[in-house]
């Protein structure tokens, strides 16, 4: 799916170090920013891959779902607030939606659930304009899936 879609930026979730390194080896032309969720940087990660021919990394940072989001490894149950005045969910741009609202956790079932719960988002700052947003329900002709989550996709640009 990644080869077919050729995203400029590819975000992952719950990847382990060996999986992320394997993906990097299979994606020539991409580089990454990642850090494991544990205090020492180990553990599962939400890595971001980007095409080196289209983007230049100027900075990077990581946030944890916690009341102290910049403290590595911090956890605070009930602190899921990611959207505030400076961040927005690309899916909320209704005019940009190109697919139905599918639940994004597929449980390895090859048929999407319309109007299901979205647990995967693309969050952007107000500096980005959202042109298209969708949920990619790609499966092979043999009903194989590449993940237990449907891919959330958006076409964005820097706002004028």
Count of discrete structural domains: 2
Helix count from the secondary structure assignment: 2
Spell out the helices and strands N to C. Answer: HEHEEEEEE
- Give the helix proportion (percent range): under 10%
Q: What Rg, in angstroms, do the CA atoms define? A: 16 Å
What overall form do the CA principal axes indicate? globular
Number of strands: 7
Indicate the structural class.
mainly beta
Beta content comes to 15-25%
Detail the poorly predicted runs. none
Major sheet attributes:
3 strands, antiparallel
Strand order of the largest sheet: 1-3-2
Question: Mean pLDDT, as a whole number?
Answer: 90
- What gap, in angstroms, lies between the N and C termini? 31 Å
Folded structure, characterized:
This is Endonuclease/exonuclease/phosphatase. InterPro entries: Endo/exonu/phosph_ase_sf (IPR036691). A 3-stranded antiparallel beta sheet has the order 1-3-2, with no helix packed on it. The chain has 2 domains: 1-60, no CATH class; 82-160, no CATH class. The chain is globular, with a radius of gyration of 16 Å. The chain has 160 residues and is mainly β. It is 9% helix and 21% strand. It has 2 helices and 7 strands, in the order H-E-H-E-E-E-E-E-E. The mean pLDDT is 90.
Task: Give me the secondary-structure topology.
Blueprint: H1 2-5, E1 9-11, H2 17-26, E2 30-33, E3 48-51, E4 87-89, E5 123-125, E6 128-136, E7 151-158
Antiparallel strand pairs: 1-3, 2-3, 4-5, 6-7
């Amino acid at each position: 799916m990644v080869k077919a879609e050729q995203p400029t930026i590819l975000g992952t979730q719950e990847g382990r170090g060996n999986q992320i390194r394997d993906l990097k080896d299979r994606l020539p032309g991409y580089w990454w920013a990642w850090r494991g969720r544990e205090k020492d940087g180990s553990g599962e990660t939400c890595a971001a891959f980007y095409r080196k021919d289209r983007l230049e990394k100027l900075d990077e940072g990581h946030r944890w779902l916690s009341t102290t989001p910049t403290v590595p490894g911090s956890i605070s149950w009930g602190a899921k607030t990611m959207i505030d005045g400076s961040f927005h969910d690309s899916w909320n741009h209704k005019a940009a939606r190109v697919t139905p609202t599918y639940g994004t956790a597929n449980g390895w079932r090859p048929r999407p659930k319309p109007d299901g719960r979205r647990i995967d988002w693309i969050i952007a700052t107000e500096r980005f304009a959202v042109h298209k947003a969708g949920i990619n329900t790609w499966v092979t002709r043999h009903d194989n899936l590449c993940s237990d989550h449907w891919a959330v996709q958006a076409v964005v640009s820097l706002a004028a």
